[in-house]
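Re: that backbone. Tokens:
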């Protein structure tokens, strides 16, 4: 329903894209885990994939990595299939709850993954970048949850990939570890590499992503720059009963960044509620029960991703 929803880009862009998804679908029985996702990520972009539990983030990520086969649609990674991109070491991945090998030390495990690739980075460097240089000789059974996450990060980094795909990378990390993690991510992205990460933390998306893709019920419901998401956060919500109003009237109001219309009841997101309200009263003289409230990033996120919010509007 949000106006910044992505339109599929031209195929010219797709040819050089880091990730290009078209009409991607995966259903499990009646559950539409991913229900028609089109997404193009350019090389060098850092993209946050946000959405509530069950939105389809992990399923999308798994299809990008070639771990899950789509029911329909296409996935290409740097113009290749996921399997080819993974085999070339072009993708590094950190999965939600990916297993670690019990009977190995951290350095052995990262070294084993490195040995599978043509041009890995030195194991020591991967450990350093992941902030676990001092844990190389530790067995994986003796690691805390946050340390395990950092080992997974070292495993993702060691092939020196062009694309990092991270599914909730900081889930088990404390605040300090999380900060360290993002610092080393900066090191990685500053060299022009592409990152797609799924997260529940809005502040991480705001701080570290160039672009935010919001998913709900298997679909992309909003896709925009961090600045656009910030604009949403700084806006207001205008609620009103608007007898006889039509969608084009609402969509044409100034400063409206998103809207929902159910019968006569409208909920508008506005970047400038004064301007919106003046135009609204002129366009719909019968408007009544008007309410204006501030909306935070959290609120914008919730309104865009809530299950009740079933109406979609394109640009
Ligand atoms: N292997 C599977 N078999 C059956 N249903 C599945 C399977 N994997 C995912 N699903 C369902 O598909 C939907 C999307 O799940 P997915 O794991 O992609 O969500 P998510 O956005 O990653 O959620 P979370 O934030 O909780 O990690 C959910 O309803 C989930 O129950
Ligand atoms: Mg998930």
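Recovered sequence:
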């Amino acid at each position: 329903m949000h106006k910044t929803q992505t339109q599929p880009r031209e195929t010219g862009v797709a040819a050089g894209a880091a990730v290009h998804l078209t009409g991607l679908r995966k259903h499990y029985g009646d559950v539409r885990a991913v229900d028609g996702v089109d997404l193009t990520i350019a090389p060098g972009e850092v993209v946050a994939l946000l959405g509530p539990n069950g939105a389809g983030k992990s399923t999308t990520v798994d299809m990008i990595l070639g771990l899950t086969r789509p029911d329909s649609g296409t996935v290409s990674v740097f113009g290749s299939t996921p399997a080819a991109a993974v085999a070339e070491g072009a993708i590094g991945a950190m999965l939600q709850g990916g297993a670690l090998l019990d009977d190995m030390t951290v350095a052995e495990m990262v070294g084993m993954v490195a040995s599978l690739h043509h041009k890995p980075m030195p194991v020591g460097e991967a450990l350093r970048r992941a902030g676990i240089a001092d844990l190389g000789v530790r067995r994986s059974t003796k690691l805390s949850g946050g340390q395990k996450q950092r080992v997974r990060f070292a495993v993702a980094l060691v092939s020196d990939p062009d694309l990092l795909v991270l599914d909730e990378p900081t889930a088990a990390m404390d605040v300090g570890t999380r900060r360290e993690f993002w610092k080393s991510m900066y090191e990685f992205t500053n060299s022009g590499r592409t990152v797609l990460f799924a997260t529940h933390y809005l502040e991480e998306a705001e701080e570290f992503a160039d672009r935010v893709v919001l998913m709900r019920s298997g679909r992309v419901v909003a896709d925009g720059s961090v600045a656009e998401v910030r604009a949403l956060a700084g806006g207001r919500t205008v609620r009103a009963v608007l007898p006889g109003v039509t969608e084009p009237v609402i969509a044409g109001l100034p400063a409206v960044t998103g809207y929902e219309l159910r019968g006569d009841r409208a909920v508008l997101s506005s970047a400038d509620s004064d301007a919106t309200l003046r135009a609204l009263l002129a366009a719909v003289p019968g408007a009544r029960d008007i309410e204006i409230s501030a909306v935070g990033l959290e609120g914008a996120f919730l309104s865009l991703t809530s299950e009740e919010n079933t109406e979609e509007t394109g640009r």
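The mean pLDDT is 85. The chain has two domains: 11-225, 236-294.
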